[in-house]
Specification:
The chain contains 8 helices and 7 strands, in the order αβαβββαβααβαααβ. It has a 7-stranded mixed β-sheet, with helices on both faces. Helix 2 links the parallel strand 1 and strand 2. It is globular. The termini are far apart. The relative contact order is 0.15.
């Protein structure tokens, strides 16, 4: 397993009993994380991939499916859904989050990871080049290979908006790796924090202004200010957001 998958395993082991928890891994590739879940004692595990032929974990069903389309599962099916480095490849990330909500049981959980393009080193890269870290050049206009291309890299606040407006509320944020190139940002931490605070404080909606305090705190946590990957642990709960008409 890679560093991200190892960190996801730490979250699963620390928060979920091994019996009776039904887990779905989306876009598992060859199935390294799924195999680790099985070997750790999580026996009720399924997977889904656009190319299930690549999946190598015997005894685990890998459904065929496309994350850009409705997921082929009944509503309220899973206790935990894991989506490692997938959401940045999708055309409609809000619809994907809505599908996660639909197939999760009430009060169930999702772990979603994606490259962290708001760490300090990535911010500097964007200022200098117009491109973020791990999205350092334009996607090809001559080959539509969105299994590989990061067509929609997400800032943290965008990912939070996608999840929260679809009833998936963030409970914990961590990362797989602190980038050494971001550590120089600690020297500018008070300055950048103040600038971000001033920007968020201009929000006219008092409800959102309160939420912006949470966002500020989260954005300037070590995991997001310095980390390579956003690893988000979210819980399905009833949403109070007003739906557009």
């Amino acid at each position: 397993m890679n560093r991200i998958e190892n960190k996801v395993m730490e979250i699963v082991r620390s928060r979920f009993a091994r019996n009776n928890v039904r887990i779905l891994e989306l876009a598992p590739g060859e199935g390294g994380l799924t195999r680790a879940l099985i070997e750790t004692g999580y026996t009720n595990v399924e997977a889904m991939d656009i190319n299930p032929e690549r999946f190598e974990v015997k005894g685990v069903k890998c459904h065929r499916g496309n994350l850009n389309e409705p997921l082929p599962f009944e509503s309220g099916t899973f206790d935990l859904i894991i989506a490692v480095e997938g959401i940045e490849h999708l055309e409609n990330q809000y619809r994907f989050a809505s599908e996660l909500n639909r197939i999760l049981k009430e009060d169930a959980y999702a772990i979603v990871t994606t490259p962290n393009i708001i760490n300090f080193a990535s911010r500097i890269r964007f200022i200098m080049t117009g491109f973020y870290a791990l999205a350092a050049r334009p996607s090809s206009e001559f080959e539509k290979n969105w299994v590989i291309e990061h067509i929609y890299p997400l800032t943290f606040w965008q990912l939070r908006h996608i999840l929260h407006t679809n009833g998936l509320f963030i409970r914990h944020i961590t990362t797989d790796h602190i980038r050494k190139s971001s550590l120089i940002g600690l020297l500018l931490y008070p300055f950048t924090y103040l600038l971000t605070w001033k920007s968020l404080a201009k929000e006219g909606d008092s409800r959102q202004r309160e939420k912006n305090k949470e966002i500020l705190h989260q954005m300037y946590s070590p995991s997001l200010y310095l980390g390579r990957t956003q690893i988000i642990f979210a819980q399905k709960q009833k949403s109070t957001y007003v739906k557009a008409t």
